[in-house]
Amino acid sequence: MIIVVKVGGDLLGNGLPDGLIEELETLKREHRLILVHGGGDIVTDISVKLGHEPKFIMSPRGFKSRYTDKETAEIYTMVMAGRINKQIVSALQRRGIAAVGLSGLDGGLIRAKRKRQLVIVDERGRKKLIDGGYTGKVEDVDVRLLHLLIENGYMPILSSIAMGEEAEPLNIDGDRMAASVASAINADRLILLTDVEGVYIDGKPIDMLHVSEAREIVEKVGVGMITKLYAAVEAVEGRVNEVVIASGLGESPVTSALEHNRGTVIR
Ligand code: ADP
Ligand code: MG
Question: What CATH number did the domain enclosing 108 receive?
Fold first, then answer.
């Protein structure tokens, strides 16, 4: 199977969790794997250390995101494609996995259209139109490069950066990017690993959601889970058979998600 695994920032605090690294080593013998990573919190920490206070904005649909001005885009690229990506590659190489770290810029892998303007909701709940900054929406994924790698035993490790129309690096959401990659490459599974057991509704974890249900409950979940549900819907409506949102902690998180022993399945 082709499996796209997205690892959220909360899992990356101290590098990839050991259980996951061990499991990837085993899974790779049987499957072709692509890893997508986030790391927003680490970008925030380093941004603060560099004296550049990050700004966050809220969309009318409840998406919270980083406001990416030029300097933020530079820090974002530096931390995502540098520190975080190379830490993951290094951890995997140490276990003998031929990990190849890439951003969406490399080889023109992920092309996006820059958002010219953004509608935001301010602290008083009023809608405002602001300059789009350096964020984008994925338009095209060059699957040839990914195939070239996975068919030859390499594991692509993708940082959530896309290439804009002027080849500028753009900040894109990791969950949505993972969904785009998974759809483009016709992945059998998309596994969104995070720090909770799955989607909770009224305090209870949900085992299975039909896409239509997933679309309906978006309004009932909080920040963080909203983007994952949108990503899951996009992927299933695209070409992915099944998406699982699950915890990346503990032993064999991906296998547990594949076997429906853990997490929320969306299909
Ligand atoms: P990641 O770095 O993995 O993308 P996020 O913090 O963006 O992690 O998203 C996961 C978070 O979403 C969880 O830690 C949890 O606090 C939050 N969350 C909000 N609503 C829900 C919900 N209904 N079910 C599960 N998690 C939720
Ligand atoms: Mg997130």
Answer: 3.40.1160.10
